[in-house]
Amino acid sequence: MSNQGSGGNVLAAICSFFIAGLGQLVQGRILAAILFFLLTWVNYTLAATGILFFMAIPGLVFHLWAIIDAARYKGGN
């Protein structure tokens, strides 16, 4: 990707909005994509059980973190 705020980063942030980690995958950051996806969806799944409903809060935090991380990525060059 070019720079922060580039069209690629905006697209990656939109992808992460729908599925956490997808924006990182679009950017080619496989490990970050897997980690964000697992951290977010494990918490959402635990929240969906009803017993651990409070796990939705860390899930939301990880999801927002994935969106912001995709939008602010500057590249490894």
TrEMBL record:
<keyword id="KW-1133">Transmembrane helix</keyword>
<feature type="transmembrane region" description="Helical">
    <location>
        <begin position="44"/>
        <end position="68"/>
    </location>
</feature>
<keyword id="KW-0812">Transmembrane</keyword>
<keyword id="KW-0472">Membrane</keyword>
<protein>
    <recommendedName>
        <fullName>TM2 domain-containing protein</fullName>
    </recommendedName>
</protein>
